[in-house]
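EI: anyone free to look at a 213-residue chain?
SC: sure, send it
EI:
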Amino acid sequence: MKVIFLDIDGVMNSHIFYEERHKKRIRSWAHWRYVIRKPLIKIGLIEPTTSKNWKEPKDMYTFDYQFKRLKEETCPKKWEWLSEFCNENDVRICVSSVWKNHFGDKVGDRYRIRAEWWKDALIKFGFKEDTFVGITGNGDSIRGKEIQEWIDRHPEVEDYAILDDDSDMMEHQFKKFHHCDSWFGLSPNHLYRIKRQFDSKSSYEKLSQTLKD
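SC: here you go
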């Protein structure tokens, strides 16, 4: 089994993505509603939304609501590139991002993580049904250590690659680390290099060396 450990922010979205989204939102009614409300709030004619008067959406703890938010915060083209790559090369996805705990419902007052909803999310993004294989740890240690702990529990992993815009990895992982510039995020070039790595045609250990120095 070949696995990509996937970060979300800075990989599946980017500075450019948010710039483009902002341009679209400026033309939307929601933006102008905010512009109109702001001075009215300032002079006290409208009550501002705070933690005290904010009403939790009824469907907030459903898959559909949470998938919609994930979709809004990420770039569809990047999901297209990644899904095509994984489908064509039989590559699995393990979510290592802080987004790993994004999906969940509520049992009483307790939030319950539903990691398996990532499988449904990836299918909706165009991945094969068996692509999602899990999430890494709970954020108590550096990301590289959480990735290693996950690998240690899954001896079926033949090879892996890490897609991330941060370099908090263990030293031996840098030859598997494919750094994404958060200005643009994931590109087809990253996937080309991962394919080369999985096919044992290239080693990126020296290329990644500067990131830990």
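EI: The domain at 2-15+58-212 is CATH 3.40.50 (Rossmann fold).
SC: 👍
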